[in-house]
Design goal:
With about 170 residues, this protein is mostly helical. About 85% of the residues lie in helices and about 0% in strands.
Length: about 170
C-alpha cells in the first residue's frame, strides 16, 4: 500500500498556488525585516547626530547670548540651518521606517490570509483523506486476516482432532 497524504485529496492547483505565495511572502517578510532593522539603525544614527548637534548648538548659543556679539548672527543662522537639515534627515529616516513598517504589516497580513487559505484547503480535504485512510487500513487488515486465518483454522482443527495423540506436544 502506498502512503496517503492529505495533499492528495486537496485541490492541487489551489494548494500549490497558496504554498507558492506563502514561500514568496515569507521571503519578502525576511527581506523587509532586514530592511527595517537597517532603517532603524539609520534613524538611530541620524537622531543621535541631531541630538549631539542640538546640544552643541545650545551650548554655543548660550555662549553667544552671554557675549552678545552681533557679528556672530550669520553663524547663528548657519548653525540653525544645519540643525534644520539634520532634523529633516531625521524625519526622512522616520518616514522610511514607517513605510517599511506598513509594508511589513501588509506582507504579514497577506501571509496570514494565504496560510488561512492553505488550512481551509487541507481541512476541506480531511474528510476524503480519512475515508481513504480507513479503506486502506481495512484492506491491510483483510490481507493480514487472509494470511493468518487459514493458519488459525488449521491450528484449531489440530487441537480438536489430535489433542490426545502421541505427538501432542509437537503439534502444540
Amino acid at each position: 500500500e502506498s502512503t496517503l497524504t492529505i495533499e492528495q485529496f486537496a485541490d492541487a492547483a489551489a494548494l500549490e498556488n497558496a504554498r507558492s505565495d506563502i514561500r514568496t511572502l515569507t521571503a519578502r517578510e525576511r527581506e523587509l525585516d532586514a530592511q527595517q532593522a537597517q532603517a532603524r539603525l539609520r534613524l538611530n544614527a541620524v537622531s543621535n547626530a541631531y541630538q549631539s548637534a542640538f546640544s552643541s548648538y545650545s551650548n554655543w548659543l548660550s555662549t553667544r547670548t552671554a557675549t552678545t556679539d552681533p557679528q556672530q548672527d550669520p553663524e547663528v543662522l548657519r548653525r540653525t540651518r544645519e540643525l534644520d537639515a539634520l532634523k529633516a534627515s531625521e524625519r526622512q529616516a522616520e518616514v522610511s521606517v514607517e513605510r517599511l513598517e506598513k509594508e511589513l504589516l501588509d506582507t504579514r497580513q497577506t501571509l496570514a490570509s494565504r496560510q488561512s487559505t492553505e488550512r481551509e484547503l487541507l481541512d476541506g480535504a480531511r474528510e476524503g483523506y480519512e475515508a481513504a485512510l480507513f479503506r486502506q487500513e481495512l484492506r491491510v487488515f483483510g490481507f493480514r486476516l487472509a494470511l493468518t486465518l487459514p493458519l488459525l483454522v488449521l491450528a484449531a482443527w489440530l487441537v480438536v482432532k489430535h489433542r490426545r495423540s502421541d505427538y501432542w506436544p509437537l503439534m502444540r
